[in-house]
Amino acid sequence: MSLIDKIIIKIPVYPTENKDKLKNIMKYMFPGIKIKEDLVRDSSRDIEYTILIGESNSLNTLEPLRRTIEREGIKQVFKDLLLYGERDFGFEIWLDKQTLLKKKITYVTGEKRALGYVKILIYTKKKELLRKWFIL
Questions:
Q1: CB within 10 Å: which end of the chain, N or C, has fewer?
Q2: How far is residue 86's CA from residue 84's CA, in Å, rounded to a whole number?
Q3: Which of 65, 107, 90, 92 is nearest to 3 (CA)?
Q4: 31 φ, ψ to 5°?
Q5: What is the pLDDT of residues 26-83, one digit of tens each?
């Protein structure tokens, strides 16, 4: 039985951003992901933008993220991030979009999410085992 049930990754793409570049980094950082696009209308800001939504059922999709965490020496920070982002369904992680484009990781919380984010939802019934997988 797998450590994960499902992974969903969401990246908003605003009119000034390069959608293909964001799709490519999504495929690179989360291999095997199936990507679809949704058009969103935000009437409060009078803007229309796309959200890239990636889905996978494979733990291998998270392997590049795991290697990046190890390479950058941020296992303890990521462990804290998993504690902060723990939900009933598993984990909700928010990463900085611009940093991810550089194949690095910076997490975001609160109001900083508005500046550009990658939202990762990991559905799992084995939270503790997945946490150990990420940081060992």
A1: N
A2: 6
A3: 90
A4: -60, 150
A5: 999 999 999 999 999 988 888 899 999 999 999 999 999 999 999 999 999 899 989 9
Burial 110-134 (b: 16+ CB within 10 A, else e): eeebeebbbbbbbebeebeebbeeb
- Quote the CA–CA distance of 22 and 11 in Å, as a whole number: 8
**Domain locations in the chain as residue ranges:** 6-135
Write out the H or E segment, with its range, that includes residue 41. strand 34-42
Distance of alpha carbon 68 from alpha carbon 22, whole angstroms? 18
- Whether the pLDDT of residue 135 is over 80: the answer is yes
- The CATH number corresponding to 6-135 among 3.40.50.720, 3.30.1440.10, 3.40.50.2300, 3.60.140.10 equals 3.30.1440.10
Q: What is the pLDDT of residue 112?
A: 58
Global pTM value: 0.91
Q: Is 115 a residue whose pLDDT tops 70?
A: no
